């Protein structure tokens, strides 16, 4: 349960999480008070719409072993289960 910061903070839970990450009170409040604070981004393209090379690079970034032997479908599954 997050602390209630009154009317000055719209998203108390997000504010506390940002403060725990080391952000200043001002920056955390500015982010937590945005109109869509706490909303998920959802701006990344679907894995199915990406090329095998793009999926391979993403798998490399997150450290998936055996990626060089995987086909596109296997890369998608590995990324989703990681």
Automatic annotation (TrEMBL):
<dbReference type="Pfam" id="PF23855">
    <property type="entry name" value="DUF7218"/>
</dbReference>
<feature type="domain" description="Rho termination factor-like N-terminal">
    <location>
        <begin position="53"/>
        <end position="79"/>
    </location>
</feature>
<dbReference type="Pfam" id="PF07498">
    <property type="entry name" value="Rho_N"/>
</dbReference>
<feature type="region of interest" description="Disordered">
    <location>
        <begin position="1"/>
        <end position="50"/>
    </location>
</feature>
<dbReference type="InterPro" id="IPR036269">
    <property type="entry name" value="Rho_N_sf"/>
</dbReference>
<dbReference type="InterPro" id="IPR055642">
    <property type="entry name" value="DUF7218"/>
</dbReference>
<dbReference type="GO" id="GO:0006353">
    <property type="term" value="P:DNA-templated transcription termination"/>
</dbReference>
<feature type="compositionally biased region" description="Basic and acidic residues">
    <location>
        <begin position="1"/>
        <end position="29"/>
    </location>
</feature>
<dbReference type="InterPro" id="IPR011112">
    <property type="entry name" value="Rho-like_N"/>
</dbReference>
<protein>
    <submittedName>
        <fullName>Rho termination factor</fullName>
    </submittedName>
</protein>
């Amino acid at each position: 349960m997050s602390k209630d910061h009154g009317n000055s903070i719209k998203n108390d839970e997000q504010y506390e999480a940002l403060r725990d990450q080391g952000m200043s009170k001002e920056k955390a409040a500015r982010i937590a008070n945005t109109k869509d604070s706490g909303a998920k981004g959802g701006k990344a393209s679907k894995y199915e719409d990406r090329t095998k090379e793009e999926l391979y690079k993403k798998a490399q970034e997150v450290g998936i072993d055996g990626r060089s032997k995987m086909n596109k479908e296997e890369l998608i599954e590995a990324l989703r289960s990681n």
